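OP here, attaching both records as promised.
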Amino acid sequence: MVRPDWKWRARFLSSFLSGDRASAGPFAAAIDVTRRCNLACVGCPSHAAGAEWQASQHDDDFAWDDFVRICRELRELGTRKVVLIGEGEPTLHPLLLDMIAEAKRIGCFVTLLTNGTRLDGPLAPAVAASGLDELRISLWASDEQECIHNYAGSSPRTFHRVLDGARAVSQARAAGHRPTPRIVLHRPIDRVYFRGLDRMVGLARDAGCDALSFSPMRPMGAGAVERTLAPEEVAELRPILERVGRSARAAGLGCNDADTLERFRIGRNVWAAFPCYVNWLDVRIRSNGDVHACAACRRPLGNIRRSSLTDIWNDEPYRRLRRTTRTRAGLAGMARDCNCGYCCHVLTNARLHRVLRFVPRLG
């Protein structure tokens, strides 16, 4: 995993001290490759039944010319990590492998997030040979029955396709004697099926994965709020997840059980715990060109088809957001525009807050 070097950290701290203009570019850029998807995962804000944002199968793919131009800007801004993600399924983009190559060409650590269902064929060896650093495969189920309930309209075969895809990439990686991509099997935790998490260890091991990861189910899609864990269920989850972590490490797998439990401890209302510093660190670029601070922030801060990312990064909307979210009260006031419940950046914010809460603003 790539981390900011001392030069980037010094530029960030200098900017934070002096005001709201970032002299360091975004450390990481998440790019929504497409809005098209072949699944309807429970809780998805774009594709689940009654989804809040309702993507169609004809929504934008990220344009290749825009991608090349953005990569050029990211290199100039000093960005070190590119995450290829989607409000849909990234492997549906016909130029995905070219995107991986372009992001690697500018010197970035590249992560691909996928539902894994399209990796059990010729795409697997191509992904294994692409130079991709990390492959994160989302699996919202521990068995066929959970799969049927968590992927609307799917069959038990979907469950096996995801695992077969992970296995195919792992085998192709081994055949090519390549160290990458690191394969991570990811499972969101919801209140309906969290008691079966122990089964994930065997699934990840048998599929040739390197690590197992978890996250709280975020209240971002239709029905997702009702599927987040109640306090008494979080208490029940703790020994389960601790046991899963021990089993994973005994099987030679990485596991983020401690981090996941810390996110549950902080709770859904993250704005009550920490301000948000992520808009100094990351950028999210959607397939239609809209630029957001993160996936949960609905308010666009600009569009790369009308302005350069370099200009957007320090234009007034971004600077205003930095001013607002550097306090807990300011972040709480963003509730109408940002769905921050169980934020995936909260541990980053926690680490930064240990230092930055003592830093006076000079600008």
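Record two, same layout:
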Amino acid sequence: MALVRLEGVGKTYPNGHVAAKGLDLEIRDGEFMVLVGPSGCGKSTALRMIAGLETPTSGRIMIGDRDVTSVPPQDRDIAMVFQTYALYPHMTVRENLAFGLRMRGTAPEVIEKRVQEASRALGLDPVLGRRPAQLSGGQRQRVALGRAIVREPKVFLFDEPLSNLDAKLRVETRAELARLHRRLGATVVYVTHDQEEAMTLGWRVAVMRDGFLQQVAPPMELYRGPANRFVAEFVGSPGMNFLPGNAVAGIGQTPSGTTLGVRPHDLTIVAPGAGDADAWVDVVESRGSELLVYLRMGATGDGAELRVVAPPEPQIEEERTVGVRFDRTRLHWFEVETGRRVG
């Protein structure tokens, strides 16, 4: 395997659109790195530049100790799995897995060995003789993964590979990917817009916005120590609450010119008058193991919205006043003008 390094990488299209700017990122040998962000943030462009499908307009890309900025995709020793499965419909699973190796002139006994190993690792043995039309969506995605695995590349690139699967299959395939990465020890760069997927898979997560890297850190560091308001809002479900710095008196020293941020899990609903503030219960959503409670600050409900994750019992009634207690060790302050986290 190998490390991947982006050094000042940028991409500007002929129409003037800047898709990526000044990307400095090192993906360590054997690491599972996730690029995450909303649509249009530049994450797929960054992945395509690593793959050689897009040419940077500035900077350089290293794989190992080799500068591959101008190297064609087929000579970079990478394997890419796309959102679409791109399987050959007239070929069996076995033939799909072996096709790339056959085209490279790999010896038949090596092809057979690698196909068997990939098939066993992905649970494809029972369907090796079937064609793609006879497979479920999850099985097709595993074939696409297997086709990349048999090549034994230096780097695996994944471009939203689970987005076509239903919720249950996404969770199952996500676990398969984590196990597979642990077994292979491969260097992986994985693109997704799903922050839950990013947080569960990534050893580190790179959050992007408008072509710029916002923060690169392990998942819990992003969650507990976001670099700015965008990261704080994007990472975590439900997202962080934001209130004017002076909205709740007495919960700590309020830096001037700031917005207060607090996660829904760091709030507790108590009796009226027993917390740091009172609020009006607007909507209560049951999630089975927990409640998501939408509050309006102030006893009359005319203040800012606040979301709280609460235990399922006791049931919280709508349209009544409750108290809210803030976990003072988990408060965040953000500059109003720049969005940068303070302290």
